[in-house]
Fold:
Amino acid sequence: MTAKKRKITIAKAMAEAIAHEMRADPGVLVMGEDIAALGGVFGNTRGLLDEFGSERVRDTPISETAFIGAAVGMAAAGMKPVVELMFVDFFGVCMDAIYNLAAKQSYFSGGNVTCPMVLMTSVGGGYGDAGQHSQTLFATFGHLPGLKVVIPSNAYDAKGMMIAAIRDPNPVVFMFHKALQGMGWLGTVQSSVVDVPDEAFEIELGKAAVVRAGRDITIAGLGHTVHLAMDAARELAKAGVEAEVIDLRSVAPIDRATILASVSRTRAFLSVDDDYMSYGVGAELVATVAEAVALKARPQRISYPDIPVPFAPEMEHAVLPSADKIIAAVQSILGEK
Amino acid sequence: MSNVIIPANLWEEDLEGAVSIWFFEEGDNVSEGDTLCEIMVEKSTFEVEAPAAGVLRILVQVEVPVKKGDAIAHIG
Structure:
């Protein structure tokens, strides 16, 4: 006899978190394309319209310029909008509201007007949706001061981080990776579907998690690449290499302390992300490590090459990170020490 | 012992689907009414509930094609 479990997907965890905060706070509302009647194309607002009605769960026209701008205004007026940018790739038409208004509101008003909004947005590819629906753009958003940018790798973190994001007085970009959403047609990573408490709880934003302990090398990933790193670590262990795996969970702020504490022990480092390489997450992590720790071998990063995402599956998967690429990189790093 | 059968009216038309997620593992205890798994048909998702309480034995793994009326698990 084993204890009763409650495994749910990231999509359901997000919907539960939003529902909890909507019950607790009448200022919380949800807006976006197809988030009400359909429950979100990625399932993360399912059930909210039935419980809270169309005043607080609002389907919008296809104008991110209008409804994300509206969300920033609502937040300035004291409401707590959770607004969905269906694909992060669509940020172009609403970026002024995000980085010039939302991100700077608190600074420009001397802290008098905060911006308690959550922008939730899908990231990542792997299912043949090509260059305008498959990017992650972690670094694009992480580069801009004033925004918190987070991404969960599993349903437990998704629930705790969404509740923390809604309660946060700052604008939070809450990214979720399509491959982890629990929507079968996008491919589902089973290890993202985990036991999640029914009740509300918070996970502090900006804190990375050590998800596997190891002495030989530190591998840092976020979102989908955490699962690839775990797969690689299990394979490497069979050959006697013990990798420590860190789930960043937050792009901004980035948890340098957790990375450095780990690398100070392992003195070897590999970062793995599925955003473009140049000026990216890997560049930031490798610089952070190189500035602070005398490493036993040269660090490496696996990222997406600096090209738009190809449509053909053979081409897309050739350039995406994979467990095999991680294993090869670890062997290359540790082979030269 | 109960069989977990995909209900004949779970989705329209005579399409094949596939289990996309099992929410429990082999040998887990389940209660009547628990959502056991999701079945993906085209781009829609359908949940299958436990018809009885007991220990789950999974017969169909994820991504294997299934039809309405198929037995996908036992509960014993």
Observations:
- Chain B has a mean pLDDT of 91.
- Chain B touches chain A through 16 residues (CB under 8 Å).
- The domain at 2-65 of chain B is CATH 2.40.50.100 (OB fold (Dihydrolipoamide Acetyltransferase, E2P)).
